[in-house]
Amino acid sequence: MVRVKNRYLTVNLLYPAASPSKSTEALPELLHIHQPTPDEFGPGKLIHAVREGVGELFGDYGMGMVNTSLKVVYHSTATSTSIVRCPQAHYQMVWAALTFMTKLPKPIGIPVVVRVVRVSGTIKKAEEEVIRRARDIIVRAKMAEQGIAEGESMREIVKAVERGAGKQKEREVLAQMGMDEEGTSDAMSE
Known about the structure:
- By secondary structure, the protein is of the alpha+beta class.
- The chain folds into 2 domains: 6-146, 2-Layer Sandwich (Alpha-Beta Plaits); 150-183.
- The protein is built from 6 helices and 4 strands, in the order E-H-H-E-E-H-E-H-H-H.
- A 4-stranded antiparallel sheet has the order 2-3-1-4, sandwiched between helices.
- The N and C termini lie far apart (69 Å).
- Its EC number is 3.1.26.5.
- Belongs to the eukaryotic/archaeal RNase P protein component 2 family.
């Protein structure tokens, strides 16, 4: 018997706001776009929206190919992140349907940008990506709150890495010459 192969799409829901309200002005700019998803928008509504999108873009053929194993494995309204399982051979159809989604379904109707951030073959790697992205957003929000610009911190990180790489290169050259880090020869120190 042939095993059905799946792909797991890690999806972020972003909410671009035209103008921030007074209650959200205190939040860092990064968090304006990474808002929590409304509680009414659950996994069932996401699947329904994907099926509608695939049907609209690819017709009955697309619906038949995708419906065999389409499922929301993970959905978090707090982080606006989902993991969608779909058939390996037709994951591009699901990706296209998600990309063309511009608003949440009817009762909610909030403008949304759906971004597929990773396609993986195992649920484990998809979950690791969700965790990594959540940590990254938290760190970036804390940096923004402290007033550290991302560009400044990235320059500091690059400089530190370059210094570390320079010291590593120096150690390698000294090792090739048979010297230790103080510049004395190994033969002289014995």
